[in-house]
Amino acid sequence: MSWIRKLFGLVKNADPxxxxxxxxxxxxxxxxxxxxxxxxxxxxxxxxxEIEADRSYSRELSAGHRLGRAYPVSQPVSDxxxxxxxxxxxxxxxxxxxxxxxxxxxYGDRGIGKTSLLHIIALLAKDARYLVRYSSxxxxxxLDSTFRAIAEDIPLLYHEKGDPTxxxxxxxxxxxxxxxxxxLTPAALSxxxxxxxxxxxxxxxxxxxxxxxxxxxxxxxxxxxxxxxxSSKVQILIGGVxxxxxxxxxxxxxxxxxxxxxxxxxxxxxxxxxxxxxxxAISGLPIDKIAQDRLIGSANGSxxxxxxxAHQASSRAIERGGKTVTATDLKDGLGMMAREQxxxxxxxxxxxxxxxxxxxxxxxxxxxxxxxxxxxxxxSLKQFPALKAMADGKPAGDISLAFExxxxxxxIWLRLAELEN
Length: 421
Ligand SMILES: Nc1ncnc2c1ncn2[C@@H]1O[C@H](COP(=O)(O)OP(=O)(O)OP(=O)(O)O)[C@@H](O)[C@H]1O
Ligand SMILES: [Mg+2]
Description:
Elements (H helix, E strand, L loop, with lengths): L2 H5 L7 E4 L5 E4 L38 H5 L16 H12 L4 E6 L5 H14 L3 E6 L6 H10 L14 H4 L15 H8 L7 E6 L7 H16 L4 E8 L3 H4 L3 H4 L3 E6 L4 H15 L5 H11 L3 H17 L7 H17 L3 H13 L2 H13 L4 E2 L19 E2 L6 H13 L1
Parallel strand pairs: 3-6, 3-7, 4-5, 5-6
Antiparallel strand pairs: 1-2, 8-9
Bound molecules: adenosine-5'-triphosphate and magnesium ion.
């Protein structure tokens, strides 16, 4: 069988065969990789093994709503055609995983694109025949429930105890069958994961900030330490909202050598322009140059805002039967978003928006809310003295100010963008 057919997963059935070195391999049916996977993205250079079985990242996007596909606003990107920028970041994650065998944490602000990155890394890793398992954490996540679910999704075939010809493997047993009934500990888990063979396993734990159990964070750190000490074939990739690495994963000193924290920051104007190029290719609706430049300025480095504003402006163009999205569509779209955003705010927060817009010179207000949007909602009176309208009689000085609601800076940002455009 040609390596190209194997690479693109064109084999439909489990197929024991021989590779070029005459070694027995097992090709498991898998989805075809997107045709443009090779296009311009950094790649894993090698194949972790020949086996691929995970289907979770190859979902065909459902038909309909062209604009929704062109500018996804409520879902992370999981299709390469929608994914823009982030080349350097992808390169460094891939190198860290593949060459340095490190465990990686992607951290950054809400909506900055962490999950989208994790989805694309998963696709690229699967293309290199890694076995990839993805888990999205919740408030109640703990080591036992998270890793049992992951292990239940890994056939025993990938463990040294799983002889491919054995009845156990044929009867659909999984790694979870190697655990006893007691609560999983990092030691018991690494013992089993240590036996993973014939592939490299990438476990993705996304939305890691959501867990409310400190022991989960501690135990994952301990697991990473154990896996590193044993030169395991298993690597962990974590994503979550945090300003810095230690906020997300505890016990950093003991795993510092094995864990790389990579901040996910704002996107450059060129990267945002790529979002618009991709979106226009999917929607078939061009955005004129002036509207594009203004839209990029209004997005403030946020892929979420770029998609949201482009979606709104394109909708306005379609509603009026236009063939191109213009600066007027952009202004109308921004106005509509600002109004919607305002309605979502509690009354006190709405009052704060009006007060700040009325009392603070708009150029200074724009700088302050732009800063807040980039710094987890933080602003200081020392840095932005014009915000004293927010201080409510507190003494002036270097006091850190909090908005009435974390939706206030975005609402003001959109209102100002509408006025300026
Ligand atoms: N590289 C990208 N190219 C195009 N769109 C992107 C990209 N990254 C993120 N987006 C868009 O930005 C929005 C937020 O992305 P995503 O959900 O990945 O962020 P997140 O950091 O995981 O958010 P949260 O902190 O809420 O989990 C989504 O609508 C997604 O479509
Ligand atoms: Mg996310």
